[in-house]
Amino acid sequence: MTTDIANDAIKADSNQASSSKTLRITLIALIAILSCYYLWVLYKAVTPNVSIAYKAYYIKNQTLFWQPKQPKLTLSIPSSLNVATRVPYLSRAGWAEDAYNNARLLSSNGGLYFTLPKAEQKNIHLTVNVSTPLSTPLNIHLNQWTGVLTPTTQANTLVASIPYNALMAGDALQHFTIDPPSPIAIKHIDFSYQEDAFAQQTITASHSQDSAPVVNH
């Protein structure tokens, strides 16, 4: 009788130990599953499956205007950007939200965010048309590259040459900025290829006669 009671006690202890072990394994498995789930949620929050334009405007607050028709912020070269319009590439930093007199005020470091449809193999000719003449150069930056916008003999026009290797490949978001020492009113920012510089200057000259120039993408 005593032996039976002892055996029953041993079996009860064994069953209790087995149940306790099973419970621990179950809890560990649940914790691991929940941890993986929350890590997945955090990953999706950090890397949401949204367009480049959506991320730049809503998540990172980089761009000034939301334009759903430009989900990749693709900028083709050549392009003529009338910055007095709601150009989707305009940075939130630096630019005035409202345009005035066919121009938009750039009061501090600001510029453009864009992607390219293909890797560029030619140097870029940049032309910036302003409302009032400037006699001093302006520093500019494109990703890690730094250059200078130089005033020309043509009224209200500054130009620069950008090496093609300053541009990043793939769907990388390019960041172009202008550093004005004081607020300036900009009308157009034009990109063309280096060998088309003369033609681009002709296009820029026509901006002063065009009261409502278009934006080419």
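the 2nd protein, sequnce then structure:
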Amino acid sequence: MNSFKGLVQKEWVVGKTTLLWLMVVQAGFVCLAFFAANYWEVAGLFYLCTWLNMLVQPLFMFSVMLSCLHSEGKTLLWIHNPQSAAMLLGSKLSISMFFQVASIFFSACIVFGGMKIPESLFKKGFHNETMLDSGSLLMAAGVLVVVSLVLAVYTLFLWIVFHALARNHVMKPLRVLLISAFCLGMLFFRQWMVSTGFYMKLDELWTVPIISDSSFSMSLDHFEFSFQTGGSLSLLTSGFELIGLVILFLLSCWLLDRKIEV
């Protein structure tokens, strides 16, 4: 436990500047949208950008995880690390998720605050309508956290497979092409799997209500963003996908424990 705590502290020291810059970039982006909307009198631009800032959060998780792994690739710490790969990768995943949750919470605060700004600051007669409450906003943030976690584990796995292929002199020049094909293959396989009748029947069992849909519309004198509730999530199929994610993480650890050299 002390070894894992030390690795997490190391990742915190290395990555805390990244978290700070993520928040600075988000605040700067929204401020720029505010001044642009005020200058061009396009009020919807500001409200749209506050939401856009939140909806692209999983891409920040991808960037943070890739940055941590790139740093690992330069230091080759896993070759000299006496601890298991599970500790090494787990520390990166844990601190990246902490950064992502903090970033999503920050962006949610920006959305909540942005919706309180009166439309008259941008354009007279503009109408901003939102059906969003704090509970729905937190639920949307939770969905983004889950998407970020899935993306982080897949990034971890693909990065390790990429370096594993470097050991094969035939595959090494084709790594980018092979990883791209493998990634597309996983996406198509998942899409095929969830469209099967058997999976659809499983998806109807042990369901809980969640946000099912979201939509927005914008015109010169009107902006609307709403979440529609009433959909459901199957705990059974979600559990299967969680098991698959854990297996993918363990497979990544197994590959890294084989002392993959870059």
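Strands lie at 127-130, 207-219, 222-234. The radius of gyration is 22 Å.
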